[in-house]
Amino acid sequence: MPERFYLDPYQTTLDTRVLRHDEAGLVLEDTLCYPLGGGQPGDTATLTLADGTALAIADTRRQRETREILHLVAADTPRLAPGTAVTLTLDWQRRHRHMRVHTGLHLLSVVIKAGVTGGNLTAESGRLDFDLPEGMELDKDEIERGLNALVAQDLPVSIQMTSGEALRARPELIKTMSVTPPLDLPEIRLIEIAGVDLQPCGGTHVRSTGEIGRMVVKKIESKGARNKRVVVALAD
């Protein structure tokens, strides 16, 4: 079953229980928190106990071996017993900005038609690295106009599911040259921006491009003979 941040990335509160709390972190029976991955930061949140005590979740990670989602709290936080009832409240303002920037990076990959060699984002900005074809030049103002034209169209953003086998037959959908989706999986998540983009992605996104808001191109940096880094940010 898909995790809650995929089922409804707009859900902000959840009543759940502690599954385990040890030196690695805190594992809940269910969570809203997106774990660090795919260039998107892990969520921060507040965990409230029945007596009103509030604990800060400083980061969220996925345990490599078990795939459990670990909520990181201060080291001196008293250990919570399994079964403890808690209310999880997402730092929604930060998450929503991640969703806006992440969707904006998809638009950036539409405007710049070149292979993507890397990327990252924060709540303020994001960047993609491009392997440019020989002779291709990047113009900051032209990229910004292209981005904001796609934002202004308020294009719907939706999720499709495919299989690794089907994706292997459509390699043109994989824009990231440095990281290939796990093609052995029976289900792989695709993000579609209506009429302009379809690509595999495990992050969280807004419902339509208009929700991103105006974007600005902060800088274009050379990272090699053909590798150019483009940094974009939310105007607000």
Would you give an account of this structure?
By secondary structure, the chain is of the alpha+beta class. It folds into two domains: 9-90, Elongation Factor Tu (Ef-tu), domain 3 (Beta Barrel); 95-234, Threonyl-trna Synthetase, Chain A, domain 2 (Threonyl-tRNA Synthetase, Chain A, domain 2, 2-Layer Sandwich), CATH 3.30.980. The chain is built from four helices and 14 strands. The chain has helices at 4-7, 92-111, 140-152, 164-168; strands spanning 13-22, 25-28, 45-49, 54-57, 59-62, 69-72, 85-90, 115-121, 125-131, 157-162, 188-193, 197-200, 215-222, 227-234. The two termini are 36 Å apart. The relative contact order is 0.17. The model has no long low-confidence stretch (mean pLDDT 93).
Task: Explain briefly what this protein structure is.
This protein has a five-stranded antiparallel sheet with strand order 2-1-7-3-4, with no helix packed on it. It has a four-stranded antiparallel sheet with strand order 8-9-14-13, with helices on one face.
- Whole-number average pLDDT? 93
Biggest sheet architecture: 5 strands, antiparallel
Name the shape in a single word: globular
Under CATH, the topology of the largest domain can be stated as Threonyl-tRNA Synthetase, Chain A, domain 2
What is the rounded distance between the termini? 36 Å
Helix content: 10-25%
Structural class: alpha+beta
CATH class group of the largest domain: Alpha Beta
Number of beta-strand segments: 14
* Uncertain segments: none
The CATH superfamily of the largest domain bears the name Threonyl-trna Synthetase, Chain A, domain 2
Helices, by number, come to 4
Strand order of the main beta sheet, please?
A: 2-1-7-3-4
